[in-house]
Amino acid sequence: MKSFxxxxxxxxxxxxxxxxxxxxxxxxxxxxxxxxxxxxxxLNENELINWFPYQAPHTIRALSLTTRxxxxxxxxxxxxxxxxxxxxxxxxxxxxxxxxxxxxxxVLRKLDLGHNRLSSTISKRLxxxxxxxxxxxxxxNFIRTIEFNAFEATISxxxxxxxxxxxxxIDAGLFKGLTLSELNxxxxxxxNLEARTFLLPNLQGLYLSHNxxxxxxxxxxxxxxxxxxxxxxxxSLSRIGNGTFGQLKKLxxxxxxxxxxxxxxPATTNWLSYILNFNY
Length: 280
Description:
The protein contains 1 helix and 14 strands, in the order H-E-E-E-E-E-E-E-E-E-E-E-E-E-E.
């Protein structure tokens, strides 16, 4: 009886598998009976791991492979998909990436690797061909270290999400030369910030909440004069030096709630429209 049930379950599983294959194949065909017109492919929450992406049209520009129980991606997996400009790999179980994984994706603009299990160092070589990359999401992984020149080639990068990893230190020159407008470092283990870490004149949103920061000074945000949103809530801030926010003339929202600050903010912040709530 148990053997029969297992066989029946396996048969149903195979039927679902081949049905998915048929649907996917039909979705590839355009009016001319070929796949050349396909722009995007979405394969979420299924088990076609071995079959895809090698059978997908090489002309696709967007590919979603979220929630597919992927553990690792080899060096040349995406080599033939050189037209990709959007790639979603979030919500898998990816533990490692070969440094050559994205080497041939030279027109990639959005890369989402959030909610995986990445723990290896983010290296320069992994991103060295990503000169057009605009949006990079690495949130909710286990990343501990990033090479000091990891983002050297990503000269177009505007949005970088490193939230909820295990970063305890950020090199002062890590973001040097980037055109970031939004940077999310929330939910890490940062205890201090080196002077001039944020030499980012285009930066408008900086999110540092839920870290372990204890003090700030006038050099902390030097070079981020166009900052509008600064989140420092849920840290261990007990000291904010005079002039810390003095050059942030465009700052609109400042969050300092849930910090053990026991003194008034410096007079230089009188012009802020800030959110203050010292519930700690």
